[in-house]
Design brief:
By secondary structure, the protein is an alpha/beta fold. It is 34% helix and 20% strand. It is built from 8 helices and 13 strands.
Length: 277
């Protein structure tokens, strides 16, 4: 434990393995008490084994979330894990959530989560970067797999980065799929895996997937995350290579991801993203 490690930490836990992996890493790095707000129908119940206390809520209960954190005594929190996109249109919002959303001119991940962060601050909770305690999973530039990209894949990666640089600031999505110089898909509201599968249906095997953080990305939430589900989507779509943004993408269970990629001949690259160019 170093001077910057909090003794206690709150998690706003979505779906997938990310919440438990971060909780486990935080514990190993010296966090003594972990509290989680979890969502029914989203968060895996296994989170209860990794934290000291869990408050189970329904999506949209912002007032209850704030009250749970106030009672917990937490002063630091992180947002970890995803929320099923379609569920965001089926929320039963409480009075607090309705009041907060009514003040937003645009509704996207940055504005909504930013507003939640502002409300947390009012009850004495600072929202920390979602990469907290997960820095070891964020790769430096280079080829991560046994196979390096072919010349054709390199060209598609370069094009994907250019497209991502243009579109990432528009709150459309973080993922672009390219095949032989043709843009097959740009991620929209459906999410990364669905965008990859859509591209596979359009262009068949042989595509390259590029995923980056948006320009001016707020590292407190919505950091690009790659896990085993993404690897499965790459295989189903027949994609041959994937490039992620170095130092700004989390690879969940990195060793297993690389092992699976190597087994199936996939190439994964952590690429530099020249934002000044």
């Amino acid at each position: 434990m170093n001077d910057s490690t909090p003794k206690s930490l709150g998690l706003i836990a979505g779906k997938g393995v990310y919440p438990r992996l971060l909780a486990n890493s935080a514990r190993k790095q010296g966090v003594e008490r972990l509290f989680a707000v979890a969502f029914r129908g989203e968060t895996d119940r296994v989170i209860e084994k990794y934290v000291d206390e869990v408050a189970w809520l329904h999506l949209g209960q912002l007032g209850a979330l704030l009250e749970a954190f106030r009672k917990s005594g937490m002063t630091k929190a992180v947002m970890v894990g995803q929320i099923t996109p379609t569920h965001l249109f089926r929320l039963r919002l409480d009075r607090v959530a309705l009041s907060v959303l009514s003040q937003l001119k645009e509704r996207n991940a940055e504005t909504i989560f930013g507003a939640v962060g502002d409300e947390l601050r009012k009850v004495g909770v600072e929202l920390m970067p979602a990469s907290m305690f997960m820095e070891h999973t964020m790769p430096e530039p280079g080829v991560l797999t046994a196979r390096a990209p072919t010349d054709e894949e390199k060209a598609d990666i370069e094009l994907g980065l250019k497209v991502a640089k243009t579109t990432s600031g528009l709150d459309i999505g973080q993922t672009v799929v390219i095949k032989r110089g043709t843009i097959l898909a740009v991620e929209a509201f459906e999410g990364t895996d669905a965008a990859i599968l859509r591209a596979g249906k359009l262009g068949g095997a042989g595509a390259v997937v590029v995923k980056v953080a948006k320009q001016g990305h707020d590292m407190r939430f919505d950091i690009p995350v790659i896990g085993e589900h993404t690897l499965k989507s790459l295989r189903r779509a027949g994609a041959t290579a994937m490039a992620v943004e170095a130092r700004r993408t989390i690879l969940l269970d990195r060793e297993e991801i690389v092992r699976l990629a190597d087994r199936h001949g996939l190439c994964i690259v952590a690429a530099e993203f020249n934002r000044a160019g």
